[in-house]
Amino acid sequence: MDRRFKDAAYRIMRPERGNAKMRKSLKSFAGASVIGAVAAFIAGTVSAETLKYVTFKPKAANDAQSISMQWFADEFEKRTGGKHKIEIFWGGSVAKIREVPDALETGVGDIGDVVAPYFQDQFLLNNIVTFHSPQPRNEIELGQKLMQWYEDYPQFDAEMAKYNMRIIGWRPLEDYGLICTKPIATAEDLKGLRVRTYGKALPTLFKALGATPVSMATPEAYEGLERGVIDCSPTGVTLARGWRFEEVAKYYIKFPLGANWGHFVTMNRKTYDRLDAQTRAILEGLGHEYLVQYVNTLYRLTDEILEQWKTTGVKVLPFPADVVAKATQSDGVQSVRKQYVERATAAGIPAAEMVKFFDFK
User: Fold this and answer.
1) pLDDT given for residue 11 in this prediction
2) Are 344 and 326 in contact (CB under 8 A)?
3) Is 287 exposed, middle or buried (0-12, 13-18, 19+ CB in 10 A)?
4) pLDDT by residue (tens digit) across 164-186?
5) Which end of the chain, N or C, is less surrounded by CB atoms within 10 Å?
């Protein structure tokens, strides 16, 4: 196993973010994916191909997503001995954030970033986390669980197959808080504020707390904050930097939304199927390793940005976790969760048991 990757697997879960059991399980699946991919590559030769990776993310963001995407492309070329390459089309140049699924389904792109929360009806099962936000799990816990469910229940893959897609990698977004244009310390402070939301769960949560939800995609949030269309936006520390929210909103509230889902590294299924077995194995191995690479980068950048904020005027403020946990018991939030369980159960998965994973203890 590559020593650099082994080291990353050990570094990723620091004491304050995980435990020894999680480190051991992460090491196990990471090692298996690397060994399997290398063995498959040695098994034969392949014809050259350049895969088109379409993303809304600007390369200049230099955040965990853009850095780890470049790593993915570089590693793919290296592990195929230069026989295959990935060309990344950055910044929505081929497909904007809501256009990526169509671009992948029709073959305009071969690989792309599908932002799950924007497509909750289209990808119901694969939005299991989105329907249960906020939740207490961290990035690694979510990533491992989604991979496990994807292996255990073929319904998850079948849902993607309906749209000519296949998930090869998982990108759980970082532990989310709120970035705001004014200080927020209590539930009372939230009342009447306009908060950017998406999907079904977050609007009901903020309604329960007395705020006004405003539906808005991430790329629109900078202007929304700048012009006062919204007062707050859910985001993580590195995303606040990558999308430059810190320029127009100077208060980061440690509002406990938990790790947010998130993105799928997704392939056009016909492209995936036409590749030879060893190349598919390399992609699958990289997809599993990607979780480690992404989160390792995420934690490093988070520490750097928090240190820089101490001198750049962004204030980090606490928010009581019990207020949020109580809001998840509101009729609106519970109705959204019940809707997921009923529809997912009808699709053949044991949803009622599965979603206990998201309970606040």
Assistant:
1) 37
2) no
3) buried
4) 999 999 999 899 999 999 999 99
5) C
Q: Is 249 exposed, middle or buried (0-12, 13-18, 19+ CB in 10 A)?
A: buried
How does DSSP assign 118-164, residue by residue?
GGTTTTTGGGTTGGG-S-S--HHHHHHHHHHHHHH-HHHHHHHHTTT
pLDDT digits (tens, 9 = 90+) for 139-173: 999 999 999 999 999 999 999 999 999 999 999 98
Strands 251-268 and 111-115: antiparallel
Please give the structure tokens belonging to residue 342.
């009923």
Q: What's the pTM value of the predicted model, to 2 decimals?
A: 0.80
HSE on the CB side for 116, CA within 13 Å?
Answer: 28
CA angle 36, 39, 40 (to 5 degrees): 85
Q: Which residues of 245-353 form beta strands (DSSP E)?
A: 251-268, 315-318
The gap from C-alpha 31 to its chain's centroid, in whole angstroms, comes to: 22
| Alpha-carbon gap, residue 26 to 291, rounded angstroms | 9
Dihedral angle over CA of 207, 209, 212, 213, nearest 10: -60
23 CB burial (10 A radius; 0-12, 13-18, 19+): middle
Mode of pairing for the β-strands spanning 232-235 and 165-180: antiparallel
Helices (H) and strands (E) in the chain, counts: 15, 9
SS3 23: helix
DSSP assignment letter at 13: S
Dihedral sign for Cα atoms in the order 76, 82, 84, 90: positive
Structure tokens at 326: 């109580």
The sign of the CA dihedral 248, 91, 213, 332 is negative
